[in-house]
Design goal:
With 290 residues, this protein is an alpha+beta fold. It is 50% helix and 11% strand. It holds the Pfam family HTH_31.
Protein backbone atom coordinates (compact mmCIF):
# COMPACT_ATOMS: atom_id res chain seq x y z
CA UNK A 1 0.00 0.00 0.00
CA UNK A 2 1.34 3.45 -0.99
CA UNK A 3 1.97 5.85 1.89
CA UNK A 4 1.17 9.50 1.15
CA UNK A 5 3.63 11.77 2.95
CA UNK A 6 3.13 15.39 4.00
CA UNK A 7 5.58 16.36 1.28
CA UNK A 8 3.45 14.57 -1.30
CA UNK A 9 0.34 16.36 -0.06
CA UNK A 10 2.14 19.73 -0.12
CA UNK A 11 3.38 19.12 -3.68
CA UNK A 12 -0.09 18.07 -4.78
CA UNK A 13 -1.61 21.23 -3.29
CA UNK A 14 0.92 23.42 -5.12
CA UNK A 15 0.15 21.70 -8.40
CA UNK A 16 -3.60 22.08 -7.85
CA UNK A 17 -3.16 25.78 -7.05
CA UNK A 18 -1.12 26.33 -10.21
CA UNK A 19 -3.83 24.65 -12.28
CA UNK A 20 -6.56 26.76 -10.64
CA UNK A 21 -4.47 29.91 -11.12
CA UNK A 22 -4.02 29.08 -14.80
CA UNK A 23 -7.74 28.46 -15.26
CA UNK A 24 -8.67 31.67 -13.48
CA UNK A 25 -6.23 33.76 -15.54
CA UNK A 26 -7.54 32.35 -18.82
CA UNK A 27 -11.18 32.82 -17.84
CA UNK A 28 -10.59 36.36 -16.62
CA UNK A 29 -8.56 37.31 -19.72
CA UNK A 30 -11.23 35.97 -22.07
CA UNK A 31 -13.96 37.93 -20.26
CA UNK A 32 -12.44 41.36 -20.93
CA UNK A 33 -13.37 43.62 -23.82
CA UNK A 34 -10.18 44.93 -25.46
CA UNK A 35 -11.93 48.01 -26.86
CA UNK A 36 -13.16 49.07 -23.42
CA UNK A 37 -9.56 48.87 -22.21
CA UNK A 38 -8.45 51.17 -25.02
CA UNK A 39 -6.57 48.51 -26.98
CA UNK A 40 -6.48 48.99 -30.77
CA UNK A 41 -8.06 46.57 -33.22
CA UNK A 42 -5.40 44.30 -34.67
CA UNK A 43 -6.84 41.71 -37.01
CA UNK A 44 -9.57 39.18 -36.51
CA UNK A 45 -9.77 37.58 -33.08
CA UNK A 46 -10.22 33.84 -32.97
CA UNK A 47 -11.15 33.86 -29.27
CA UNK A 48 -13.05 36.39 -27.14
CA UNK A 49 -11.36 38.75 -24.74
CA UNK A 50 -7.71 39.77 -24.55
CA UNK A 51 -4.77 37.97 -26.09
CA UNK A 52 -1.94 36.79 -23.86
CA UNK A 53 0.33 39.30 -25.56
CA UNK A 54 -2.02 42.13 -24.55
CA UNK A 55 -2.13 41.06 -20.91
CA UNK A 56 1.66 40.83 -20.89
CA UNK A 57 1.88 44.31 -22.41
CA UNK A 58 -0.54 45.82 -19.87
CA UNK A 59 1.27 44.14 -16.95
CA UNK A 60 4.74 44.89 -18.36
CA UNK A 61 5.87 41.23 -18.20
CA UNK A 62 7.29 38.90 -20.79
CA UNK A 63 4.84 37.12 -23.09
CA UNK A 64 6.60 33.77 -22.67
CA UNK A 65 6.63 34.10 -18.90
CA UNK A 66 2.93 35.01 -18.78
CA UNK A 67 2.15 32.09 -21.09
CA UNK A 68 3.93 29.74 -18.67
CA UNK A 69 1.82 31.18 -15.84
CA UNK A 70 -1.36 30.42 -17.78
CA UNK A 71 -0.07 26.93 -18.50
CA UNK A 72 0.26 26.18 -14.80
CA UNK A 73 4.05 25.99 -14.78
CA UNK A 74 6.11 26.58 -11.65
CA UNK A 75 7.24 30.19 -12.24
CA UNK A 76 6.90 31.72 -8.73
CA UNK A 77 5.57 35.25 -9.47
CA UNK A 78 6.59 38.12 -7.19
CA UNK A 79 4.23 40.45 -5.32
CA UNK A 80 4.84 43.32 -7.75
CA UNK A 81 4.30 41.15 -10.83
CA UNK A 82 1.13 39.56 -9.43
CA UNK A 83 -0.20 43.00 -8.57
CA UNK A 84 0.49 44.21 -12.11
CA UNK A 85 -1.30 41.19 -13.58
CA UNK A 86 -4.29 41.71 -11.28
CA UNK A 87 -4.48 45.34 -12.41
CA UNK A 88 -4.13 44.39 -16.08
CA UNK A 89 -6.99 41.92 -15.73
CA UNK A 90 -9.15 44.51 -13.89
CA UNK A 91 -9.47 42.24 -10.86
CA UNK A 92 -11.66 43.21 -7.93
CA UNK A 93 -10.21 43.09 -4.38
CA UNK A 94 -11.73 39.62 -3.88
CA UNK A 95 -10.26 38.39 -7.17
CA UNK A 96 -6.87 39.91 -6.36
CA UNK A 97 -6.81 38.13 -3.02
CA UNK A 98 -7.75 34.88 -4.79
CA UNK A 99 -4.89 35.33 -7.27
CA UNK A 100 -2.36 35.95 -4.51
CA UNK A 101 -3.37 32.84 -2.60
CA UNK A 102 -3.24 30.62 -5.69
CA UNK A 103 0.18 32.07 -6.59
CA UNK A 104 1.52 31.15 -3.15
CA UNK A 105 1.70 34.74 -1.92
CA UNK A 106 0.33 36.12 1.34
CA UNK A 107 -2.79 38.32 1.01
CA UNK A 108 -1.15 40.62 3.58
CA UNK A 109 1.39 41.53 0.86
CA UNK A 110 -1.25 43.00 -1.46
CA UNK A 111 -0.58 46.76 -1.84
CA UNK A 112 -3.38 48.99 -0.56
CA UNK A 113 -3.74 50.52 -4.03
CA UNK A 114 -4.67 47.11 -5.44
CA UNK A 115 -7.50 46.83 -2.93
CA UNK A 116 -9.18 50.13 -3.77
CA UNK A 117 -12.78 49.70 -4.80
CA UNK A 118 -14.41 51.91 -7.38
CA UNK A 119 -17.89 53.37 -7.04
CA UNK A 120 -20.30 51.71 -9.43
CA UNK A 121 -22.26 53.90 -11.88
CA UNK A 122 -25.49 52.88 -10.13
CA UNK A 123 -24.13 54.00 -6.75
CA UNK A 124 -22.97 57.27 -8.30
CA UNK A 125 -26.50 57.92 -9.60
CA UNK A 126 -27.95 57.05 -6.20
CA UNK A 127 -25.75 59.60 -4.42
CA UNK A 128 -26.66 62.30 -6.93
CA UNK A 129 -30.36 61.42 -6.70
CA UNK A 130 -30.26 61.97 -2.91
CA UNK A 131 -29.39 65.64 -3.39
CA UNK A 132 -29.91 68.03 -1.68
CA UNK A 133 -29.46 65.64 1.27
CA UNK A 134 -25.74 65.17 2.02
CA UNK A 135 -24.74 61.54 1.43
CA UNK A 136 -21.65 59.39 1.04
CA UNK A 137 -20.65 55.74 0.74
CA UNK A 138 -18.00 54.31 3.05
CA UNK A 139 -16.23 51.03 3.54
CA UNK A 140 -16.14 49.47 7.04
CA UNK A 141 -12.70 51.07 7.57
CA UNK A 142 -14.21 54.54 6.90
CA UNK A 143 -12.63 54.87 3.44
CA UNK A 144 -14.95 57.08 1.37
CA UNK A 145 -15.96 55.40 -1.89
CA UNK A 146 -18.27 58.15 -3.12
CA UNK A 147 -20.10 61.31 -2.10
CA UNK A 148 -22.41 63.97 -3.45
CA UNK A 149 -21.83 67.70 -3.67
CA UNK A 150 -23.71 68.64 -0.49
CA UNK A 151 -21.70 66.14 1.58
CA UNK A 152 -18.56 68.09 0.64
CA UNK A 153 -20.30 71.37 1.49
CA UNK A 154 -21.44 69.98 4.85
CA UNK A 155 -17.92 68.84 5.77
CA UNK A 156 -16.18 71.90 4.33
CA UNK A 157 -13.78 69.81 2.21
CA UNK A 158 -13.59 69.39 -1.58
CA UNK A 159 -13.00 65.63 -1.69
CA UNK A 160 -12.35 65.79 -5.43
CA UNK A 161 -9.10 67.57 -4.55
CA UNK A 162 -8.11 65.01 -1.88
CA UNK A 163 -5.88 62.05 -2.88
CA UNK A 164 -7.84 58.79 -2.99
CA UNK A 165 -5.74 57.17 -0.23
CA UNK A 166 -6.62 60.09 2.07
CA UNK A 167 -10.39 59.96 1.47
CA UNK A 168 -11.10 58.43 4.84
CA UNK A 169 -13.47 60.01 7.37
CA UNK A 170 -11.20 59.41 10.38
CA UNK A 171 -8.07 60.55 8.56
CA UNK A 172 -9.83 63.71 7.36
CA UNK A 173 -11.07 64.39 10.89
CA UNK A 174 -7.52 64.06 12.24
CA UNK A 175 -5.82 66.14 9.54
CA UNK A 176 -8.29 68.73 8.22
CA UNK A 177 -9.37 71.56 10.52
CA UNK A 178 -12.50 72.32 8.49
CA UNK A 179 -13.68 68.72 8.80
CA UNK A 180 -13.00 68.49 12.53
CA UNK A 181 -14.59 71.87 13.30
CA UNK A 182 -17.79 70.83 11.51
CA UNK A 183 -18.19 67.86 13.89
CA UNK A 184 -17.81 69.87 17.09
CA UNK A 185 -16.66 68.64 20.52
CA UNK A 186 -13.35 66.80 20.01
CA UNK A 187 -13.46 65.19 23.45
CA UNK A 188 -16.71 63.49 22.42
CA UNK A 189 -16.02 62.73 18.74
CA UNK A 190 -12.45 61.38 18.88
CA UNK A 191 -13.22 58.54 21.36
CA UNK A 192 -16.13 57.52 19.13
CA UNK A 193 -13.85 57.18 16.12
CA UNK A 194 -11.36 55.18 18.18
CA UNK A 195 -14.14 52.87 19.36
CA UNK A 196 -15.57 52.41 15.87
CA UNK A 197 -12.21 51.57 14.35
CA UNK A 198 -11.19 49.22 17.18
CA UNK A 199 -14.43 47.25 16.78
CA UNK A 200 -13.77 46.77 13.07
CA UNK A 201 -10.05 46.14 13.48
CA UNK A 202 -10.77 43.06 15.56
CA UNK A 203 -12.14 41.31 12.46
CA UNK A 204 -9.58 42.75 10.05
CA UNK A 205 -6.27 42.38 11.87
CA UNK A 206 -3.64 41.60 9.29
CA UNK A 207 -5.56 43.31 6.48
CA UNK A 208 -3.01 45.61 4.80
CA UNK A 209 -5.37 48.57 4.35
CA UNK A 210 -6.65 48.44 7.94
CA UNK A 211 -3.10 48.16 9.30
CA UNK A 212 -1.89 51.02 7.11
CA UNK A 213 -4.78 53.24 8.19
CA UNK A 214 -4.11 52.60 11.88
CA UNK A 215 -0.44 53.52 11.42
CA UNK A 216 -1.44 56.70 9.58
CA UNK A 217 -3.84 57.66 12.40
CA UNK A 218 -1.04 57.17 14.92
CA UNK A 219 1.41 59.21 12.85
CA UNK A 220 -0.84 62.26 12.45
CA UNK A 221 -2.51 62.27 15.87
CA UNK A 222 -0.90 61.65 19.24
CA UNK A 223 -4.38 61.98 20.75
CA UNK A 224 -5.73 59.09 18.69
CA UNK A 225 -2.72 56.92 19.56
CA UNK A 226 -3.03 57.71 23.28
CA UNK A 227 -6.74 56.86 23.34
CA UNK A 228 -6.08 53.64 21.42
CA UNK A 229 -3.43 52.56 23.91
CA UNK A 230 -5.08 53.78 27.12
CA UNK A 231 -8.76 52.98 26.63
CA UNK A 232 -10.36 49.80 25.40
CA UNK A 233 -13.78 50.84 24.17
CA UNK A 234 -15.62 49.53 21.13
CA UNK A 235 -18.56 51.13 19.34
CA UNK A 236 -21.04 49.88 16.79
CA UNK A 237 -22.41 51.87 13.85
CA UNK A 238 -25.96 53.08 14.48
CA UNK A 239 -28.46 55.67 13.29
CA UNK A 240 -28.40 58.80 15.43
CA UNK A 241 -28.85 62.57 15.52
CA UNK A 242 -25.71 64.42 14.59
CA UNK A 243 -24.80 68.08 14.89
CA UNK A 244 -22.65 69.99 12.44
CA UNK A 245 -21.27 73.48 12.88
CA UNK A 246 -21.22 75.55 9.70
CA UNK A 247 -19.38 78.94 9.77
CA UNK A 248 -22.21 80.77 7.97
CA UNK A 249 -25.32 78.74 8.79
CA UNK A 250 -24.57 77.85 12.42
CA UNK A 251 -25.46 74.57 14.12
CA UNK A 252 -27.27 72.09 11.88
CA UNK A 253 -28.96 69.08 13.44
CA UNK A 254 -29.27 66.13 11.06
CA UNK A 255 -30.49 62.55 11.31
CA UNK A 256 -27.72 60.17 10.19
CA UNK A 257 -29.22 57.07 8.60
CA UNK A 258 -27.11 54.08 7.52
CA UNK A 259 -27.84 51.40 4.93
CA UNK A 260 -25.47 48.50 4.33
CA UNK A 261 -24.98 46.88 0.91
CA UNK A 262 -24.28 43.47 2.48
CA UNK A 263 -24.45 42.15 6.05
CA UNK A 264 -20.66 41.82 6.33
CA UNK A 265 -17.79 43.85 4.87
CA UNK A 266 -20.11 45.76 2.55
CA UNK A 267 -20.18 49.46 1.77
CA UNK A 268 -22.32 51.69 3.97
CA UNK A 269 -24.54 54.44 2.59
CA UNK A 270 -24.81 57.41 4.97
CA UNK A 271 -27.55 59.95 4.39
CA UNK A 272 -28.06 63.08 6.48
CA UNK A 273 -31.66 64.28 6.70
CA UNK A 274 -33.03 67.46 8.32
CA UNK A 275 -35.19 66.76 11.39
CA UNK A 276 -37.45 69.83 11.23
CA UNK A 277 -38.40 72.86 9.13
CA UNK A 278 -35.43 74.82 10.44
CA UNK A 279 -33.14 72.06 9.26
CA UNK A 280 -34.76 72.07 5.82
CA UNK A 281 -34.22 75.82 5.59
CA UNK A 282 -30.56 75.39 6.58
CA UNK A 283 -30.15 72.64 3.98
CA UNK A 284 -31.43 75.03 1.31
CA UNK A 285 -28.85 77.57 2.48
CA UNK A 286 -26.11 74.94 2.37
CA UNK A 287 -26.84 74.22 -1.29
CA UNK A 288 -26.12 77.86 -2.10
CA UNK A 289 -22.47 77.58 -1.01
CA UNK A 290 -21.30 76.10 -4.32
Amino acid sequence: MTTITKLDQFTSTLEDNRKMLAAFLRTRRESLDPQRLGLPRSGRRRTPGLRREEVALLADVGVTWYTWLEQGRDVNPSVSVMTAIANALQCSPVETRHLFILAGLSPAEIPASALCENLSPASRRLLDALMPNPACMQKPNFDILGYNHNFCLLMGVDLDAVPVDERNCIYQYLTDENWSRRLGDRELILPLFVGYFRAGMTEHRGDPRWEALLESFFSVSGEFKALWQQRYEVRGIENHLKQFTHPQIGTIQMQQTNWFSTPRDGARLLVYLPVDEEGERQLEQLSQFA
